[in-house]
Design brief:
- The protein is of the alpha+beta class.
- The chain has 4 helices and 9 strands.
- Strand 2 and strand 3 form a beta hairpin.
- Helix 1 packs antiparallel against helix 2.
- The longest helix has 23 residues.
- It is elongated.
């Protein structure tokens, strides 16, 4: 992971990768699994005498809530960031969804954010706030903030965010032209 260089003035590697992880999300996923198990237990070994409708509603409610909690939290256990020559790609969770790809020609600037917190964005996950822009927040800590040509911002938490910002800024600079063509 991280930026690779031959030397201080040497060429960069074609791809920079980084990631951030939130192990606390596993606790939430376990709570979802417990809720799902409760729903299954109710369906299999129920001695309810109050009728079928309350039982069905309880079973379906527990299983649905458990699955939503489980998959909603597992999608944001970690985030992977990849910066290549043309774009920046953010993939969340183990299956890579949600995913966002931003072409570098849509980016006008990149800044290091020393402390991105879920509290500032309204929680973990893929977030949108009209006054702040869009973010992928999987943990509290350092991140990058991209300013896009359309006036929006995109923030993502990632380890070694300063290196990511350097790589993005280097790739935003116009390459030296070979000179006039004859």
């Amino acid at each position: 992971m991280g930026e690779e260089r031959e030397d201080e003035d040497g060429p960069q590697a074609d791809v920079w990768t980084g990631r951030a992880t939130n192990r606390f999300q596993w606790v939430s996923a376990l709570a979802g699994a417990a809720c799902t198990a409760l729903g299954i237990e109710l369906a299999v070994d129920s001695a309810w005498t109050s009728g079928t409708a309350p039982l069905v509603m309880s079973v379906v409610g527990c299983i649905a809530a458990g699955l939503l909690i489980m998959f909603g939290t597992l999608a944001f256990v970690h985030v992977a960031l990849k910066v290549d020559r043309e774009s920046l790609e953010v993939r969340c969770g183990h299956i890579g969804v949600p995913r966002r790809r931003i072409p570098l020609h849509d980016v006008i600037g990149a800044e290091f954010a020393p402390c991105v917190t879920p509290r500032h964005w309204g929680g973990w996950g893929y977030r949108w706030r009209p006054e702040k822009g869009t973010a992928v927040v999987v943990r509290r800590g350092e991140g990058i903030v991209l300013r896009l040509w359309d006036g929006h911002t995109f923030t993502v938490t990632v380890d070694d965010a300063e290196a990511a910002v350097r790589v993005i800024r280097d790739r935003l600079r116009p390459s030296a032209s070979p000179g006039p063509l004859h």
